[in-house]
Amino acid sequence: MPQLNPNPWFFIMMLSWFTYSLMIQPKLLTFTTTNSPSDKTTYIKTTPWTWPWT
User: Fold this and answer.
1) DSSP the chain
2) pLDDT for res 33
3) Cα separation of 19 and 13, whole Å?
4) How far apart are CA 50 and CA 53, in angstroms?
5) pLDDT tens, position by position, for the chain (54 residues)?
6) How far from each other are the two terminal CA atoms of the chain, in whole angstroms?
């Protein structure tokens, strides 16, 4: 059964993983998001919640 022979498939998997890690991933990480979470202001509620059973 040729599926069980990992000799050619392991090399293909490692080659594709290294290609992704070394070439594609740095290009993707240079893109900036349009809606950065750090740009949002935080809303702080100052009044305490009134619970009906207390």
Assistant:
1) -GGG-HHHHHHHHHHHHHHIIIIIHHHHHTPPPSS-GGGSPPP---SPP--TT-
2) 67
3) 10
4) 9
5) 556 777 788 888 999 888 888 888 888 778 776 666 665 666 776 777 777 876
6) 71
